[in-house]
Design goal:
The structure is a homodimer of 421-residue chains. The first copy, chain A, has 2 domains: 3-35 and 228-398, Glucose-6-phosphate isomerase like protein, domain 1 (Rossmann fold, 3-Layer(aba) Sandwich); 42-216, Glucose-6-phosphate isomerase like protein, domain 1 (Rossmann fold), CATH 3.40.50. In chain A, 46% of the residues lie in helices and 14% in strands. Chain A contains 15 helices and 10 strands. Chain A has helices at 20-31, 46-50, 53-68, 82-91, 108-118, 135-152, 170-178, 198-207, 211-225, 233-246, 262-276, 298-303, 342-359, 374-395, 406-416; strands spanning 3-8, 71-75, 98-102, 123-128, 160-164, 181-184, 251-256, 284-289, 308-315, 364-369. In chain A, strand 7, helix 11 and strand 8 form a beta-alpha-beta unit.
């Protein structure tokens, strides 16, 4: 399970510590469906709900994709791709098709790069969109679908998997008409909370992740994270970051020492930024990759404005350690490390950074799971989702809406001359 | 040349606009060597200095690497890799060896991934370190050097290129003893300003970038950016961001609509974060990739705390446009876009986002260059460097030191038991 270490944060709080009373109230509102946006709290049930028939359908489709495709093109934006990409990059499954994420932008250069990357390899498409009207993925789907139809003719439709609304919308209509195999974006789950539905699980399974293990671990994690207690790591994280925010820590930097964590940080930024950044409030979610960024953002973190808090996600054990070699004559002076594992050395570096940042005035929260695998991924997802809901309620916002996302879309459709705008 | 568009920012400033008087004073201090850290302003001369013999040596070595290697392993951290990586990812040269960046962390999992990526292909190493004692690259160099020696025996030394101090330090000593071809990290240029020295140019050239064109464009850009005038785009950017900072815009989000810009944003974060984040002041440098992040950070940017400013870097023309296809029956309702280039559609999206964000209270600065190529890269590098120096002086800090980076290193070496600590 997830462990939260608050030893680097407590010194920055009042002597009463984090407000677990408020965390408990927020949790109760969530559990009883009495908080804002209660219609969108189905994510708590996803792991249990998806087990059984739906997971069977997902793994069967994933097998078919793996059997027939060297590449899977996942078309989706925001919550329709971030969770899957985060999981695939974190877990790094082997022997699956390459996954290309498309539909995240409109740059022709980026599209051409993706087409070159695809080449003439066999591929399938998983298009993920609740409505089918979001421009970026809709445009990409039109383009990649055209390629698929050119390549496979009538057989193209068997290579398209649509994850969309269960009953209505443009994409659902196309999928029904063309006979694409369809998966459901649940009505009671927002995009950023949807990775443990078919939205995330189909690409994860196709890439080679063990989604049975993942969903099992998630069900267990959701159960434990639903226990109302100050021992609940979601309470600890939510209450502490809110207390730090109230004390002027306006930016939260999510750090990891694993480069494979990059898209988990992107997923986390959407989850927290979109859930909490509204009504003029919200912690700014930023991320860094250590050790690399100790030599770029490190100076600012150590000595810049004291408006930062830092959350470090770590894994208890590396997958495979690597021993520092001995070199005769010690030309570079590193023989004092020879024979020690990089895993240990990296862990010492992490402790050294924590001490330096705390001494410099940056509160530090640690979040850890045992391993960088399907279970660890599921545990982190459930933890951050549950903590986000509690944290948003503590902050006094509806953590499940995103009204601000419409502003640019309205302008864009009007300026592009979309009929009816 | 770089153009700065302040139309989305002026409404947020006092009626007097940006303080070009202060920008001029800062520029004068820089030009006359009278500002803080004046010993580290050699970057202004780099393009002119490197032309001639040094550039010949760099391109000759690059040719040798390209002739003998399927992979170039660049070992370096911070300013010793970010500029090269930014340029290679932005320009995307073809037909060069694959470049693997190592030495940026201590994770054994990440190291093992890189070793797998390298496989048994022919490779060379470019190790970049002023001193040779920074732990992360020193450890990676020890490991990759060991592999190289195992693979090539006595020939390994001809596959190692050391970019380091001209006279002293651990790496210089090893390079001299072993007979590695060496390149110089100039004494009067800090790491984050060093991309137009051998530090950046050797990997850029080896990857296939036209460094002659790049350096020529940089020399011209540095000349123009040294003209003391409110028309100077570096003045415009530096003065405007400082004015916005004084008005409570504490976070600057660097945005681009090109995914290939990602490491340019990372390079920019080091440049500005490390130059300005000290003495308890400095704008927090963050970045986003649009359109993707309109569906993750977009909500926060539109409706969160009004402490943000946004700087959007764009390229006037795509490399290759892509026309939206027509589809019979218009199932997805996108035929109103058919026949239009994605380049135009993307540009409309950019204008729509600007209007939405400005209306939402986020000042917007535009930075543009004509093309995403060697010239555009050089122009952006020179622009951001010059503006950073001026901006740092306007803020009242020494933009050329980084005392805060030492804090974690000291802890780490002590905790690892390095002899003498």
């Amino acid at each position: 399970m997830v462990k939260v270490d608050l030893s680097g944060a407590m010194g920055f709080l009042d002597s009463t510590g984090p407000d677990y009373g408020a965390a408990g109230q927020a949790h109760r509102a969530l559990a009883e469906g009495k908080g804002a946006g209660a219609d969108f709290t189905g994510w708590r049930e996803l792991p249990r709900r998806v087990q059984g028939e739906e997971l069977k359908q997902i793994t069967a489709a994933a097998e078919r994709i793996r059997d027939t495709s060297e590449v899977l093109v996942v078309v989706g934006i925001g919550g329709s791709y971030l969770g899957a990409r985060a999981g695939i990059e974190l877990i790094q499954p082997k022997n699956g098709p390459e996954v290309i994420f498309a539909g995240t932008g409109l740059s022709p250069d980026a599209l051409v790069s993706k087409l070159e990357q695809l080449g003439d390899r066999d591929f399938s498409i998983n298009v993920v969109s609740k409505s089918g009207t979001t421009l970026e993925p809709a445009a990409a789907f039109r383009i990649f679908r055209g390629l698929l139809e050119k390549k496979y003719g009538a057989g193209a439709r068997r290579r398209i998997y649509a994850t969309t609304d269960k009953a209505r919308g443009v994409l659902k209509t196309i999928a029904d008409k063309e006979g694409y195999e369809s998966f459901v974006v649940p009505d009671d789950v927002g995009g950023r909370f949807s990775v443990l539905s078919a939205v995330g699980l189909l690409p994860l399974a196709a890439a080679g992740c063990d989604v049975h293990t993942m969903v099992g671990a998630a069900a267990e994690a959701m159960y434990e994270l639903d226990l109302r207690s100050p021992d609940n790591p979601a309470w600890q994280y939510a209450a502490t970051r809110n207390a730090l925010y109230a004390k002027g820590k306006k930016i939260e930097i999510l750090a990891s020492y694993e480069p494979s964590f990059r898209y988990m940080a992107e997923w986390w930024k959407q989850l927290y930024g979109e859930s909490e950044g509204k009504n003029g409030v919200g912690i700014y979610p930023a991320s860094v990759e250590y050790n690399a960024d100790l030599h770029s953002m490190g100076q600012y973190i150590q000595d810049g404005p004291r408006t930062l808090m830092e959350t470090v996600v770590s894994f208890d054990r590396p997958r495979k350690d690597y021993e520092m070699p001995f070199v005769m004559g010690d030309p570079d002076g590193l023989n004092y490390l020879a024979g020690r594992g990089l895993g240990e050395i990296s862990r010492v570096a992490m402790e050294a950074v924590k001490a330096a940042h705390v001494a410099g005035g940056v509160p530090n929260m640690g979040v850890s799971v045992p391993r960088r695998d399907e279970e660890g991924f599921a545990e982190l997802v459930c933890f951050f989702e549950m903590a986000c809901a509690i944290s948003g309620y503590m902050l006094g916002v509806n953590p499940f809406d995103q009204p601000g996302v419409e502003a640019y879309k309205k302008n864009m459709f009007r300026m592009l001359g979309k009929p009816g705008t």
